Amino acid sequence: MMAHMSDCLFCRIASGELPSTIVAESELALAFRDAAPQAPVHVLVVPRAHVTSAHTVRDADAHLIGELVLLAQRVAVIEGIDAEDRGYRLVMNVGADANMSVPHLHLHVLGGRKLGWPPG
Ligand code: DGP
Known about the structure:
Elements: H1 9-14, E1 22-25, E2 29-33, E3 41-47, H2 63-79, E4 88-91, E5 107-111
Antiparallel strand pairs: 1-2, 2-3, 3-5, 4-5
C-alpha cells in the first residue's frame, strides 16, 4: 500500500485535490458518485491510501476490503436501496478484460433499478 500517488485520479479525489460528489466517508475510505453512472445509484467507494486493485491487495491492506464493504452498506442506507425488496450490486473490476479503467482499488455500488444478470 502506498499513501498517495500524485498521478492517480482516485488518490487526487480522495485527498480532496480534485472535486467529487461525496456520499459518505470514513477515516480510511471515501464514497463518491460515479461520473458516468450506469444505474440510478452508482457510487464508488475507494480507500484513501493507494492500492492498485483487488489483485494487489496484501495482508497489510486486506482490512481495507472490509472497510469498503462497510462504507458501501452506509451508502446503500443513505441512498435508500438497502431494503430486502430493493438491494444493490457491489462490483470490483480487475484488469483489462473487466474494463478496469482507473488503477486504484474501488468498489462500485450499483442500484436503484433491477440489474441484469449475467452482467455481459
Ligand atoms: P472501472 O471501470 O471499474 O475502473 O471504473 C472506474 C469508474 O470511474 C467509471 O465508472 C467512471 C468513473 N470515473 C472516471 N473518472 C472519474 C472522475 O473523474 N470522477 C468520478 N466521480 N468518477 C470517475
